[in-house]
């Protein structure tokens, strides 16, 4: 008996069948024999099992318009990737051989060179043999840019196996938000999205491939594919394989749902992702085309790619309903009819199971656009926060307190806003209550007085800018004005340190002053990286404004990734690296280990802010960008449950930080054969991040920025303003660099 009934699915796109399905089946069967995938001595697959799983049908449904040779090639890719999954299970997951698994995965990279310079190594097993063959057949038709993206997504796909094995070894079920984020990073759907480009003969232009709209399309596609697979594979993965990386199980464990309710909740998230996909395709692609000046061919390629992702969604669902690999017997709707092999099938068999109403009101659908702002929520009781490091305080604290007020006054931060009579963002009293010098002093406990001042000024500037932006542009929904405002900021960060335009507001005045204080000692290349980090942060304000204009609560993974930008994380980390750049090569800072260290620290700080600022942002500002609210909306839970999930996620980020420091950094240092000076630099960088996280938490416990008594008394003749303190908190880490 199945553990739950399959829910009713939202499928807005027609499922169609490629007429070359039979030739793909015959070809891939022969190919599997040639590669040794059906070797009886392995005991993993035989011909009957391969036929029952029917990957030819999968690819015929997911790529209904592909020519016969491309359908054969794509089908071989899917046979390879599913065989890899089962081969890895039998060889490493069941024995929990983490060391052997890592060595096995490391070898596979040699079979996918972006720029081949010679033959690959001699394959030692069917996985390596199949990968070498597929890569040689695929790359002649693809650009170097596509190859690099496909190599990355394949590597991420393979790395998923290590992440899943690590969770099994630890007996750990991931936090719901962590699960969705990791599933997106290392799951197979981004890999499938790259193959959509190949099958459609429509590469996404390099100019827009890394843009936010294209990333959202890929990520929402991936979420829906992964979560759909979790529903169909729950019985096999959880019951037979002892797998812990399954969305249904995650919902059971963390929200206390029974299995049926958890499955229904996962289905709601699938609907959420599809609605976000549609919203992005309709509202964000046209301005993206214009912004980059894409020619007609490039625009048609992007649209063909989007259509290919739509085909994959419906086709993948149709295949899951038929494949012997998955649970697909008990459904609330009629069972699937026999496959039609003659060509397009109109709405497809699964359309009989579509019920639109639940999706339209689920997370990410209409519900995500109907948030009621400024509702009374009251103070949020803080859960027990995990912090293994002790904050220290800089002895120059009092001087920086005084100097920050004087600097803010000089920059005009207490003045009335032009065109808004009687309206000021801050008063001196408000700045006193925020007490950013405490944050700067705890984050930079050993900095001399002048450096601590600069650190405090960055914090003051960033938080003022974050408060200024929604007052001036949010209340008027003025996206055009916001873009012009944002574009002007780069002029106040000249790489050659030439003169800047006359500033017209406190943000421009403060940025120009801080730029010259901070950038003068840097090389021009370092200034370019520094400026890009500032621009990433300021551009993220436009994303927040777009969500407010649509009254859209963002999804958690998009929120967390963008929160690092709104919080100024990349700015902070880039400046810290600049201080160490002569001792440690940029290549090391670009490794997965170092990015994991940075991201885990940044996420911890961001989430501390969201827990502490919940009442301020939701009740007094009408803010949408707070992780507690985001989790509430996404998972349909109450604030206390959401806060517990956010705290659990925050704790897992800190545990991840500790794990990287204890186990991964020593391995990284050995791999790069770092000398003593470089190792000391890395140790110092870790100590700074520890001070930083402890200082961020200390400031949140001491500041009165979030006190209800202060929130009820805004500056005279103003309305509540603001948003996440974001950069302000992180920027304190900058000044001492």
Automatic annotation (TrEMBL):
The keyword Metal-binding applies. Keywords: Lyase, Magnesium, Metal-binding. It comes from the Bacteria. InterPro entries: Isoprenoid_synthase_dom_sf, Terpene_cyclase-like_2. It is an enzyme of class 4 (lyase). Its EC number is 4.2.3.-. Its cofactor is Mg(2+). Belongs to the terpene synthase family. PANTHER family: BETA-PINACENE SYNTHASE-RELATED, TERPENE SYNTHASE. This is Terpene synthase.
